[in-house]
Design a protein that fits this description.
This protein starts with 29 loop residues before the first helix and ends in an 8-residue tail after the last helix. Strand 28, helix 19 and strand 29 form a beta-alpha-beta unit. The protein is α+β, with helices and mostly antiparallel strands. It has a 7-stranded mixed sheet with strand order 3-6-1-13-10-11-12, sandwiched between helices. Strands 4-8-16-15-14-9 form a 6-stranded mixed sheet, sandwiched between helices. Strands 19-27-28-29 form a 4-stranded mixed sheet, sandwiched between helices. The radius of gyration is 28 Å and the shape is globular.
Length: 804
């Protein structure tokens, strides 16, 4: 990854007991992973396991006339071949939790959310290239793949539609015949009187911007393995999922079993980014096969499957208008957003509503009119990807802000500064409704300071001076800014269980698994501070439904806020128990003791002490409890379900200086600066890594990655030969800085951080490129800004005012 600029963290406001929060502790999980000792799903050794391979539709839209599996069944090593008819009795897949509309949101806005259950294997029709039609289970993957070629499927092709606006037109091919049209979701809201504001505004700009489709493309593709214990009958499933508890419930529902009979373990994960945060049919069919066949089963996805059959993201069309007064103060925003959902409604309002309620960003906007519609098309289904609707909204709003600044003759940074919500206005009510159905409120932040620092890092006067000097060797320089807010810490809850083992080690189990976020380090830091023990005595387990029977998962920048605060509270409660137990052992008052570095000591410094290991090792045997005051049991453990009272709002400002070669269309990023605010920082090293990774993925979408479909619904970027993923060589050094405005929404004052870096890069780079090419009349309305697209923009740009 790119190098980052060093900066100081001593001003972080850490509610620390032992001072672990705020320390840049090296990640404890790294040595194991770097030495190749990680345990990913493919590393789970299941003796005698069958391997699965899926036959996928080559058509975007077709009727299945017949499926003949006789030759495949007779192939060497094949144990079973199933079609849609063989699993038709199983319930179709539905992402129930993601599709649920919060009651408050339903009451206030009455959104339309249409369910489109997905059959585990297609039966009558296929709706996108890559949809599973049959599955082969064989002694190894090679034999399974060979047998796939022997499955004879007869299709009748049907008209396909890939453009979401065409899909809404009368007479468009209808994907789901039980629905009236191809609308999957629709919701709209208003604040104030936007029509009057637009009618009386000094300046109005109207634009259409497109956020293009691309893919999470994690290093580790999806994988799932399942095995039934022959003695207990319990089913254990290993998956790269981000939401193990939701997967457990879905598997139990599919198999018609009690949840307690299914255990899901989130193994080490080589990147999730939201793509592994939803349910897939493969995750249900593999456990079903393990139970039905009485053998362990493994499936792992290849790269072609990941690019074509795992979820896509980002594709939105924004028709946005801004109204402002003569001084450039925003009066109103109007936006009509169209989201391409692909063939199935997998996650309902999650992405569309995230775009809606994040559109206004850090700006004071008294009037708004925002509507969004999600549309079904014959493309792979779309779901959240790092940022989940926010990068798309920021792209539209920040591009519109630059267009407004040019119309008003203002510096884009100055226009932003005039419209930012001020710190003294916090908590700030936007007038919108947040994703939970409550009035939207920004809990904390200093948006003007974010912008001030970003502008300083960009050295705006130097860029403008160089622009006045003119292009050099056909290369033009430009600067761009983009700001964002992110509501983090999505509920409804997260779980932490803390136990003191007889040897004095602390066992912490949380419901949120890790896909590289460093939970084993950061959660241990929180636990060490809350409890009063050294960091190296804490063992952290995440994402095992047996260790924590209740949980939600690692999605939506929620793990630190929810699992972190659950850990903090569990640690404080266990600390109370430890001190009370020690007081009874030592015969002294509880308030005269303290727990420091794993040793109970007198507050005065005089008197006997007691190690945590000795205290835990002398706990009474089960069935012989010590007398207590009734407030606590004698077991040194606690389970906490933390329920956030509202969103903790993170924010940031990005600045980019670019050089564009007008002859080749090549873009060079000369400087990229990020100033972010995620409240209290638990571990600065991990925070910097999260921001850096997010920015890298955002730059990838801005300049390189795009999932392209032909008009017939055939994907054209199906391998890494066509789908361009940048390496660390293409990502510039980053200049990082941060503010610390603790959130009042939780005990620790933390805000989510994992997605923030990915939210602004598309907008800031588009703004910078347009700034460089503005003398040529270029307006950037979509990405990625590949060399060929930049050359097209220059070639087709109208002559700017005052030039031929």
């Amino acid at each position: 990854m790119p190098r980052t600029t060093e900066h100081r963290h001593e001003d972080a406001h850490a509610p620390a007991t032992g001072g672990w929060i705020g320390r840049p502790v090296p990640r404890v999980e790294d040595e194991r992973l770097l030495r190749g000792h990680g345990r990913y799903v493919d590393d789970v050794a299941l003796p005698g396991a069958l391997q699965a391979a899926f036959l996928r539709s080559p058509h975007a839209h077709a009727r299945i006339e017949s499926v003949d599996v006789r030759a495949a069944l007779a192939a060497p090593g094949v144990v079973a071949v199933w079609t849609g008819a063989d699993v038709a009795a199983l319930p179709p897949m539905l992402n129930q939790e993601e599709l649920r509309t919060p009651p408050g949101l339903a009451d206030l806005l009455d959104p339309l959310v249409r369910m489109t259950p997905m059959p585990l294997l297609a039966t009558d029709k296929v709706l996108y290239v890559g949809q599973p039609v049959a599955v082969v289970l064989a002694e190894n993957r090679y034999l399974a793949e060979d047998a796939l070629e022997l499955v004879d499927v007869r299709y009748t092709a049907l008209p396909a539609v890939v453009d979401p606006e065409e899909a809404l037109s009368p007479g468009a091919p209808r994907l789901h015949e039980e629905l009236d049209d191809n609308t999957a979701v629709a919701v709209a809201t208003k604040v104030g009187d936007p029509d009057e504001a637009f009618a009386t505004a000094h300046t109005v700009v109207s634009e259409e911007f497109l956020a293009h489709r691309y893919v999470a493309s994690p290093i580790e593709t999806r994988a799932v393995a399942a095995q039934v214990d022959p003695f207990s009958g319990k089913l254990t499933v290993w998956s790269g999922t981000q939401t193990p508890h939701r997967l457990r419930e879905a598997i139990a529902h599919t198999l018609g079993r009690e949840s307690e009979t299914v255990r899901v373990v989130a193994a080490d994960v080589g990147g999730g980014f939201g793509q592994k945060g939803i349910l897939y049919v493969e995750e249900l069919l593999v456990p079903y096969a393990a139970r039905a066949l009485g053998r362990a089963v493994l499936w792992r996805e290849d790269r072609n499957e990941n690019l074509t059959a795992s979820s896509h993201a980002r594709e939105q069309i924004h028709r946005i208008e801004l109204a402002a007064d003569a001084d450039g103060r925003l009066l109103a925003v109007r936006d009509r957003i169209t989201v391409n959902f692909g063939a199935y409604n997998m996650t309902g309002l999650v992405v569309p509503y995230n775009s809606l309620c994040h559109l206004l960003g850090p700006y004071r906007v008294p009037h708004a009119d925002i509507g969004v519609v999600g549309v079904l098309t014959n493309t792979t289904f779309a779901t959240p990807y790092r940022g989940a609707g926010r990068p798309e909204a920021v792209f539209a709003m920040e591009r519109a802000m630059d267009r407004l600044a040019i119309e008003l003759g203002l510096e884009p940074a100055e226009l932003r500064a005039r419209n930012l919500v001020r710190p003294h206005e916090m908590p700030y009510a936007t007038g919108l409704v947040d994703r939970s159905g409550k009035p939207q409120s920004y809990d904390s932040g200093d948006f003007p300071e974010l912008l001030r620092r970003a502008v300083a890092k960009a050295d705006l006067p130097a860029v403008r001076a160089r622009q006045r000097y003119g292009p050099q060797d056909g290369r033009r320089v430009g600067v761009g800014f983009a700001m964002y807010i992110e509501a983090t810490g999505l509920g409804p809850f997260e779980t932490a269980r803390m136990d003191i083992a007889p040897n004095g080690r602390v066992k912490l189990a949380i419901g949120a698994p890790s896909q590289g976020q460093g939970h084993r380090t950061s959660m241990a830091q929180i636990a060490a501070d809350a409890l009063g023990v050294p960091l190296d005595v804490i063992d952290v387990t995440g994402g095992d439904t047996e260790a924590t029977p209740f949980g939600v998962g690692t999605i939506a920048s929620r793990a630190l806020v929810n699992a972190g605060n659950a850990t903090h509270r569990a640690g404080r409660l266990v600390r109370e128990k430890v001190l009370e137990a020690a007081a009874r052992r030592l015969g002294v008052p509880t308030d005269g003791l303290d727990l420091r570095d794993g040793v109970v000591v007198p507050r005065t410094g005089d008197g006997p002490s007691l190690t945590l290991a000795r205290l835990a090792g002398q706990a009474p045997l089960p069935g012989t409890p010590e007398p207590t005051d009734g407030r606590h049991g004698t077991e040194l453990s606690e389970t906490v379900h933390f329920r956030p009272p509202g969103f903790a709002v993170a924010s940031g400002a990005h600045a980019a200086v670019v050089e564009v070669d007008v002859r080749t269309g090549e873009i060079e990023i000369l400087k990229y600066a990020v100033v972010h605010d995620a409240g209290v920082i638990v571990n600065p090293l991990i925070a910097e890594g999260q921001v850096t990774g997010g920015v890298a993925q955002g730059i990838a979408g801005a300049l390189y990655e795009e999932m392209v479909y032909g008009p017939d619904g055939q994907p054209r970027t199906t391998t890494y030969m066509d789908y361009l993923v940048p390496t660390s060589s293409e990502i510039p050094d980053l200049d990082l800085d941060e503010l610390f405005t603790p959130s009042p929404m939780n005990d620790l004052g933390v805000k989510g951080l994992g997605e923030g870096g990915a939210i602004a890069p598309q907008a800031v780079l588009a703004n910078a490129v347009e700034d460089a090419l503005r003398p040529l009349g270029v307006v950037v309305r979509r990405g990625p800004l590949s060399p060929s697209r930049v050359r097209d923009l220059i070639r087709t740009a109208p002559a700017p005012d005052g030039q031929d």
